[in-house]
């Protein structure tokens, strides 16, 4: 029965039913949501151009809005993990032979804390301010990832195909390139802006090839984000169709991702990924705590 319910939920999240389920779930959490809105108030003014761009188009470049020191710290924390992966310490993710998740061992061992730069980066006021302005309340930090993509000489699959993210009804992701992404050989994150993606809102297929997408939209209208290491951007991936990691032989891409959702989560809460060290303020604790 549990497997059946999970499957039904999986399908429901990909249909117009999902927003209604979310609304019903939020009605059950009104006191907690009121607190999240109250704690967000200092972050909501003045409104940022980045948040408005996300609301309008589904994406924004955010490099200049972030703390340069935090970007440098993130890069410094990621490089030893990449070196270990290159040395054979990383295994391909299940179902994704073209990429590896470099934080999974830290999560499993309970080593990922709010003191780690890969976590602290997502919790900096500049990031939380933009995300809170999009949601109108403090979000929940769903996960942080370091993903190492490389060529695997196999047909394109899963996230290399066009898709939306269904972690929740609204999913906002912060991305940072930690290696240079100079062109198509480096597997750039590629997306179709929100207004165009809205024209192909629902599909029975979670992932679509270029040919399948072309029956609804023109893939030539997509945007491939390129730039040097430490290029940062935010995308509402539940709205914008996107794909990436189409890495050519001899190339690689290291990408940081912080995923934010609004509470309460429609899927069951997983085991916490991030351990608090004890000096977090109320805002950070709320962002890391389900409603």
From TrEMBL:
Superkingdom, taxonomy of origin: Bacteria
Protein name listed in UniProt: Fe2OG dioxygenase domain-containing protein
Species assigned in the record: Sphingomonas corticis
């Amino acid at each position: 029965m549990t497997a059946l319910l999970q499957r039904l939920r999986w399908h429901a999240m990909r249909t117009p039913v999902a927003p209604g389920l979310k609304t019903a779930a939020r009605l059950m959490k009104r006191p907690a949501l009121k607190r999240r809105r109250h704690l967000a108030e200092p972050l909501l003014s003045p409104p940022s151009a980045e948040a408005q761009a996300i609301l309008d188009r589904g994406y924004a470049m955010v490099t200049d809005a972030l703390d340069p020191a935090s970007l440098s710290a993130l890069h410094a924390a990621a490089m030893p993990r990449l070196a270990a992966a290159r040395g054979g310490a990383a295994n391909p993710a299940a179902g994704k032979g073209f990429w590896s998740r470099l934080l999974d061992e830290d999560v499993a061992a309970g080593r990922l804390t709010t003191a780690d730069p890969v976590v602290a980066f997502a919790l900096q006021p500049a990031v939380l301010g933009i995300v809170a302005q999009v949601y109108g309340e403090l979000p929940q930090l769903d996960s942080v990832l370091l993903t190492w993509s490389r060529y695997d000489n196999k047909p394109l699959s899963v996230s290399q195909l066009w898709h939306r993210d269904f972690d929740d009804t609204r999913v906002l992701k912060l991305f940072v390139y930690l290696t240079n992404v100079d062109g198509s050989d480096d597997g750039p994150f590629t997306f179709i802006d929100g207004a165009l993606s809205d024209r192909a809102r629902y599909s029975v297929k979670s992932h679509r090839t270029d040919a399948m997408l072309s029956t609804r939209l023109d893939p030539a209208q997509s945007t491939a984000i390129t730039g040097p290491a430490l290029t940062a951007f935010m995308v509402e991936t539940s709205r914008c169709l996107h794909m990436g990691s189409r890495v050519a032989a001899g190339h690689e891409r290291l990408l940081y991702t912080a995923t934010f959702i609004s509470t309460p989560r429609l899927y069951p809460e997983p085991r916490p990924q991030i351990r608090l060290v004890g000096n977090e303020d109320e805002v950070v604790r709320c962002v890391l705590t389900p409603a």
